[in-house]
Amino acid sequence: MDHSNMAGMDHSSINMSNTAPPVSASTQTSDSNIVDGKNLTLVATESSLEVKPGTTLPVWTFNNSVPGPQIRVKVGETVRVTLKNELPEPVSIHWHGYPVPNAMDGIPGVTQDAVVPGKTFTYEFKATVPGTYWYHSHQDSVNQLDRGLYGSLIVEDPKEQYDRDYTLVLDEWMSMGLMDMSNMGNMNGMDHSSMPGMDHGNMNSNHGTNTSSDSPAAGSHDMSMYDIYTINGKTGDAINSLPVKKGDKVRLRFINAGYLTHKLHIHGHDYRIIATDGQPVNSPALISNQLIAIAPGERYDIEFTADNPGKWLIEEHGDEDRMKNMRTVIAYEGSNSSVTSDWKEDQPLFDLTKYGAATNMKFTLNQPYDHEETLNLNTSVLNGETVYTINDKVFPNTDKIHVQKGDIVKVKFINKSPKDDHPMHLHGHFFQILSKNGKPIEGSPIIKDTLNVKPGEEYVVAFEADNPGDWMFHCHDLHHASAGMVTDVHYSDYNSNYTPDPTVGNKPE
Fold it and tell me: Quick one: which of 62, 99, 222, 492 has the fewest CB in 10 Å?
């Protein structure tokens, strides 16, 4: 693609009262923050991020940027990224959605030791599958993602050409700063300004299998603390616009790096949803005026032709003030018009299970499978703490899914939580969605690595065990993962050469 047509990056001013160096917030639309991943060093370091004028947050970054640099390679190239840790805590990099070799998956205590302060680790893998992916720390990930340790990974298909190619990374923050979640039970009357770093890890300090949902304490965690919604590290009017020219072929890559689902509305244009989680949709139809729900960990790629000059909103739909600040503008060059909305009441929610054209699918509901698993997802209480369970167990006591290379596996998700969504993410593999709530998929085959299962919903998916290793399978609301909703896909015919170092303090979730 031609990066020369991309808009410049907004290097906003930083409140220098924070002792850490300032961070750049990028629209991921400038050569200055798009890097070649064939030989790259990512430095994890402390910094500060001005999400809007007057609001600066303490953050952890890759290369002093939130999001971190966008890594771009072409299919067939080898990605070689050296992680250098200048943080006070160990860190790692997981390549979310990408089928890397198991040793490169970045899971502390499972595939590697976390990189301790002052040390390095080099990740190397071949880019074989085009699409939109991302990377993030998987060491104590509920905390380290919240602090800003993430970025995008784009594997380009040389057959695809766009005049404009924008990546929009969605996230949520707290204006009170990054809190210590271990004190959440005693927040009344606290001086939040003194809270140092956010620690979600104590939500489930005593893992076990004897859980009960009868306690009145059972229920979802309060996510209202996330009062700042951002796109590429900026919020509200501070978010950069997306310049286009009439006639441009435009691609928008949405990545949800946060812990909440965001329903987005694209104004003024018909568009196609051409990929989900990096995988193409078959014969995507033109749609408009629909809400696109993007759950934690998911990616949606959208294509449109710039055929309606003016300034048009892309915004989150919702009545809460924090939602109204997740917005950017499709801005036609030379247009002097005001920002326009074509919002209508009762806009439908986009339904991926009925979109695109049916074609031959790799898996079917009725074919024979080597393994059939049911994962009952639930919210419960253990020793007075909210936990998130798979088949009434919490990690590390959940039952592994045992496979051998070449096995075909069918998995049924059933969300029994009364209020909680569970975006389930499988490492190292893609899976195909076969049915939703007992009804077979009607449209294009749907291939994903992250699937949001809402309360009361039931999905059946299938995958081939084609990437030997030990792979995590967990909820990507990482509050839920850190409180138990994790299992593993374990290849019995895989022998790892890795032995964990007990002195490192590996925290895979």
Answer: 222
- Give φ, ψ of 203 to 5 degrees: -65, -25
- What are the distances in angstroms from CA 286 to CA 66, 217, 272, 290, 432? 33, 46, 5, 11, 23
**Residue 138 DSSP class:** -
CA 460 – CA 372 distance, rounded (Å): 10
Longest dimension (CA), the chain: 64
| 299-320 tens-digit pLDDT | 999 999 999 999 999 999 888 9
What pTM, to 2 d.p., does this model score? 0.89
What is the rounded distance in angstroms from the CA atom of residue 489 to the CA atom of residue 451?
16
Question: Distance between CA atoms of 193 and 29, rounded to whole angstroms?
Answer: 34
CA torsion 481→58→171→341, rounded to 10°?
160
**Could you tell me the domains of the chain?**
3-160 (2.60.40.420), 228-354 (2.60.40.420)
d(CA 175, CA 366): 50
| Beta-bridge mates of residue 291 | 349
Tell me, what's the pLDDT at 152?
98
Select from 137, 167, 165, 164 the least CA-distant residue to 153: 167
Ordered DSSP codes for 411-472: EEEEE--SS--EEEEETT--EEEEEETTEE--SS-EEESEEEE-TT-EEEEEEE--S-SEEE
Which DSSP letter does residue 269 get?
Answer: -
Find residue 154's DSSP bridge partners. 72, 132
How far, in Å, CA of 103 to CA of 111, rounded? Answer: 5
pLDDT at position 177, please?
55
Q: Look-up: residue for tokens 């899971």? A: 107
